[in-house]
């Protein structure tokens, strides 16, 4: 079964807010990707439109094959091209525009999968720690406030790189790749720092609240 993104009456892309995927390329569009890359680097909106028309469908199909969800694939495709426009001034560092765009899409897929895994792990930790959890009683408010204060102190006591990675991760709009770029390390190293930081915090929580189970 052939998958295709949702269509739109107006498929012309707007810089900063990528158009919907699936527009058909003009028959006379014969400019090479090298030429389009160079023009994009100067802020040429027409070049961006041509790049989108020629690559949006293959990128969408690639992403859809990885996530098996057309709506999610459409969102990731849109985000990829919106990001491409936002970093157009970096095109002089790009060798292959096609490879670069597919790599951007691939990274976004992996970021989504990592975020989903973290979310599921967190939800499981909450269920494991509080299998019979109920809404807190009024007299537990002070305990919750104290716990938040302790959490901030424990984070401040983490090793520098772990604290930096965890603090950046708490910024919801930063991906693992962006954190890695900021910290000048690999995304895998970022993940290791975050995992170790979370393990330490769970251990500290277990010391403060023995009734809360921490990781072995």
From TrEMBL:
Domain RNA polymerase sigma factor 70 region 4 type: 151-201
Stretches with biased composition (Low complexity): 13-25
Protein name listed in UniProt: RNA polymerase sigma-70 factor (ECF subfamily)
Domain of life: Bacteria
Residues covered by region (Disordered): 1-29, 113-141
Record GO biological process: DNA-templated transcription initiation
SUPFAM superfamilies documented for this protein: Sigma2 domain of RNA polymerase sigma factors, Sigma3 and sigma4 domains of RNA polymerase sigma factors
Compositionally biased tracts (Basic and acidic residues): 113-131
Ranges of Polar residues composition bias in the record: 1-10
Similarity remark: Belongs to the sigma-70 factor family. ECF subfamily.
Organism name: Salinibacter ruber
NCBIfam families, alphabetized: Sig70_bacteroi1, sigma70-ECF
Cited Pfam families: Sigma70_r2, Sigma70_r4_2
Domain RNA polymerase sigma-70 region: 52-117
Lineage: Bacteria, Pseudomonadati, Rhodothermota, Rhodothermia, Rhodothermales
UniProt keyword annotation of DNA-binding present: yes
Transmembrane residue ranges: none
GO terms of molecular function: DNA binding; sigma factor activity
Annotated keywords: DNA-binding, Sigma factor, Transcription, Transcription regulation
